[in-house]
């Protein structure tokens, strides 16, 4: 239909968007969707902020379908706060290692994957370090997928740097992400 139109394409598309019937869109029911999302987020935050081993009730609430990846990840994590503590310590260690590399004159011209610099890598990890642990001491679990993505990226593309404990950080953040992301 668009190919059969005559004239400039931009004004035609703008008019088509303006005249489209917006009442039938799938994501139009924002109130009920956000209410459901807020309940799920609240339940997830409540469970993930407990400094104790996951209980049967936690398994029932987070993995009611007994999804094997979710159950396996919850078994691997055991205590979410303790695991977040470990992840935070590993992120701190990683930023410290990157800072040391920046001070090393041999690393001055080091080019990482897709021309990323050590400075950019440090900014990426420093932001996650600042944002993951809040001033209250609690963890912002919404940062877990970001930590997992960044460490996965670095393990795959920047392993030549030889940074210590990246595989441990990858393993722990993957287990946490496999709990948080599906929720």
Tell me what the structure shows.
This protein has 183 residues and is mostly helical. 63% of the residues lie in helices and 0% in strands. Helix 4 (68-77) crosses helix 8 (166-180), helix 6 runs antiparallel to helix 7 (144-157) and helix 7 (144-157) packs antiparallel against helix 8. The radius of gyration is 22 Å and the shape is flat. The model has no long low-confidence stretch (mean pLDDT 87).
Q: What would you say about this model in short?
A:
With 183 residues, the protein is mostly helical. It is 63% helix and 0% strand.
Which keywords apply here?
mainly alpha, 0% strand, 63% helix, 183 residues, 8 helices
Radius of gyration, in Å, reads 22 Å
Shape estimate:
flat
Termini separation (Å)?
40 Å
Average pLDDT value?
A: 87
Kindly state the number of beta strands. Answer: 0
How large is the share of residues in beta strands?
under 5%
Note the quaternary state here.
single chain
The biggest sheet, with number of strands, parallel, antiparallel or mixed sense and barrel status, is: none
Q: What order do the helices and strands follow?
A: HHHHHHHH
> Which structural class matches the secondary elements?
mainly alpha
EC number: 2.7.4.24
Subcellular location: Cytoplasm
Family: Belongs to the histidine acid phosphatase family. VIP1 subfamily.
Keywords: ATP-binding, Cytoplasm, Kinase, Nucleotide-binding, Phosphoprotein, Transferase
């Amino acid at each position: 239909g668009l190919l059969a139109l005559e004239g400039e394409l931009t004004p035609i598309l703008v008019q088509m968007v303006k005249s489209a019937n917006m009442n039938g869109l799938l994501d139009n029911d924002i109130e009920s969707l956000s209410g459901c999302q807020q309940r799920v987020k609240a339940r997830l935050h409540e469970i993930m902020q407990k400094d104790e081993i996951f209980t049967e009730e936690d398994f029932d609430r987070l993995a009611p379908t007994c999804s094997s990846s979710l159950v396996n990840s919850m078994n691997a994590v055991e205590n979410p706060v303790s695991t977040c503590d470990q992840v935070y310590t590993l992120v701190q260690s990683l930023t410290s290692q990157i800072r040391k590399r920046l001070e090393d004159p041999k690393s001055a011209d080091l080019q990482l994957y897709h021309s990323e610099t050590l400075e950019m890598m440090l900014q990426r990890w420093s932001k996650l370090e600042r944002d993951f642990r809040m001033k209250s001491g609690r963890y912002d679990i919404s940062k877990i997928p970001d930590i997992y993505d960044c460490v996965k990226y670095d393990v795959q593309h920047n392993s030549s740097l030889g940074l210590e404990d990246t595989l441990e950080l990858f393993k722990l953040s993957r287990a946490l992400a496999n709990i948080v992301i599906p929720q």
